[in-house]
Write a structure and sequence with these properties.
single chain, 224 residues, alpha/beta, Rossmann fold, three-stranded antiparallel β-sheet, 7 helices
Length: 224
């Protein structure tokens, strides 16, 4: 079963034409898919199309479920004056919500994912006071509150210490294997992506250059 199907997707920024060209990708339920490629190749733009932040694309994006999204760290206010619990709970709010009212099931869900990511003891702490790795755990928990199907992450380990980055990958891999959570992420760390992912997508100059397994990628498999 595919949770996301992308057909003939193209997108251009006002100042940059052909940012993405004729993208065709399927994301299977329960997969760990890493999108790799050089800076400026269109990786983050593709994720923004998928989650609905870029709307003026041509082609088709079919989504079978709501998506939890973790944007690039540069797009997140690290000094945001809210508690861990408040941020995680906010993931339960539907995109079209007109008011904020947390139900008992929302609080139970938030507690569950905070315990899963080992941040429950931090729930009353201010997000701004956390380390970079702790902040990413909080934001992954927030994304998990939005859905139990698929989370989309844009460079979640960028700027983190290598040991902390490894922990983030291990958390995501555990969620995939034990919770059957589908992971779709952009990564600059190709070596680690090849270790944890089961599907690799390489984008080059706005086009899909490769789709396949890490083994095929290492062997220079057939390009798309």
């Amino acid at each position: 079963m595919n949770l996301i199907e992308i057909k003939e997707l193209s997108y251009s920024y006002p100042t940059k034409k052909d940012t993405l060209r004729n993208i065709n990708i399927d994301v299977k339920k329960g997969s760990f898919t890493c999108i790799v490629g050089e800076n400026g190749s269109g990786k983050s733009t593709l994720l923004k199309c998928i989650v609905g932040l870029n709307k003026t694309y041509t082609g088709e994006i079919k989504k079978e479920t709501q998506i939890g999204y973790l944007p690039q760290k540069t797009e997140i206010q690290s000094n945001f004056p809210a508690s861990v619990e408040e941020i995680v709970l906010s993931g339960t709010i539907p995109n079209n919500a007109k008011s904020i009212f947390y139900k008992k099931k929302d609080k139970e869900k938030a507690k569950e994912v905070m315990e899963e990511l080992q941040i429950y003891d931090l729930r009353k702490k201010c997000f701004a006071d956390l380390s970079g790795g702790q902040q990413q755990r909080v934001l992954i928990a927030r994304a998990m509150c939005a859905t139990n199907q698929i989370i989309v992450l844009d460079e979640p380990t960028n700027g983190l210490d290598p040991n902390i980055a490894k922990q983030i990958y291990e958390i995501l891999y555990k969620l995939k294997t034990e919770k059957n959570l589908t992971i779709l992420m952009v990564s600059h760390d190709t070596e680690r992506a090849l270790k944890y992912a089961d599907t690799v997508i390489e984008i080059k100059q706005g086009k899909v250059e490769f789709i396949g397994t890490p083994t095929e990628y290492k062997q220079g498999g057939v390009k798309q």
